[in-house]
Amino acid sequence: MTSPHPDSEAVADTDPSVYRTLLESTRAIPWRIDWASMRFTYIGPQIEELLGWKQSSWLTVNDWADRIHEDDRQKTVDFCVAQSQKGVDHEADYRALTRDGDQVWIRDVVHVVRHADGGVDALAGFMFDITARKQAEDKILQLQRELEVLSYRDSLTGVANRRMFDTLYPVEWAKARATGEPLSLLVIDIDYFKQYNDHYGHVQGDECLRRVAQALDSCASRTRDLCARFGGEEFVLLLPATDEDAARNVAERCRRLLQHKEIPHARSGVGRAVTVSMGVGTIVPGAHDDRNVFLDRVDRRLYQAKSAGRDRICDTET
């Protein structure tokens, strides 16, 4: 490796202003705090451009702490003090307050300078403006959350999808078992839907699915209630803390809402409007009950309703 030119070494050794010029020409903001007095012995002039506070106003660590956003202040100060007392180099991300009341995301990179005996002499470091990076990270997190929501939503009807039901059903089953509260399920199928599609076409069939889903979803009105598209023209309502009578009432309300919508169905075998068949079940899960067995039982009741002529509710087994 070629050695630096001896003249350049001499300049650096004899002229400390070279180092200061280099430090103050970067976008990173250098600083130094004396540990004993907790006073700034230096902070780069770039701080004024970034935060608006004059370079001369940074006197003690209190000036630094007071200019941290109140939501980040205590945890940031506690973390930095604890790490510094241990003599550990560290980094901290926090929102700094600007003089005009705005905020900037800062990454503080801290080096602990020690005495010969190992005690802390000073803290030195750099502040970096990471606002753009944080905004990009926040945008990515927002998109991830939106994608997660979409992954649990049926794209055609807008109600929850089978994945959402499969996620929440075990949770509500466990809650019902722990609390002794009843849990109800409604499994619902649109009557003669194949004939509907054959007669009106798939575009109109999709619209029919959306209108039925909206009606069913409006009946799952409590926060924990769930209406999900189970597949094809089949839907399921998951109703926590709902007894048999209440579940039957929800089922009847679903049928009435669809009757009021009067969605034409010229090829139905039970009338001239879209109808549904339903299986309804309620259980207080015990230690030996199986949620899949219960779901299968309610599903069989749906097919009993269909076998009995459709456009009806079955909540018992024959």
Describe the overall structure.
By secondary structure, the chain is of the alpha+beta class. The chain has two domains: 6-136, Beta-Lactamase; 152-314, Alpha-Beta Plaits. It contains eleven helices and ten strands. It has a five-stranded antiparallel sheet with strand order 2-1-5-4-3, sandwiched between helices. A five-stranded mixed sheet has the order 7-8-6-9-10, with helices on both faces. It is elongated, with a radius of gyration of 34 Å. It is an enzyme of class 2 (transferase).
CATH topology of the largest domain: Alpha-Beta Plaits
In whole angstroms, the N-to-C terminal distance is 91 Å
Strand order of the largest sheet: 2-1-5-4-3
User: What is the CATH C level class of the largest domain, in words?
Assistant: Alpha Beta
CATH homology superfamily name of the largest domain? Reverse transcriptase/Diguanylate cyclase domain
Mean pLDDT: 91
H-E string: HHEEHHHEEEHHEHHEEHEHE
| Structural class label | alpha+beta
Percent of sequence in beta strands: 15-25%
Strand count, sense and closure of the main sheet? 5 strands, antiparallel
Total strand segments? 10
Number of helices: 11
* CATH-defined architecture of the largest domain: 2-Layer Sandwich
Radius of gyration from the alpha-carbon trace, in angstroms = 34 Å
Number of domains: 2
Shape: elongated
Organism: Duganella violaceipulchra
Domain GGDEF: 181-318
GO biological process, one term: cell adhesion involved in single-species biofilm formation
Domain PAS: 15-74
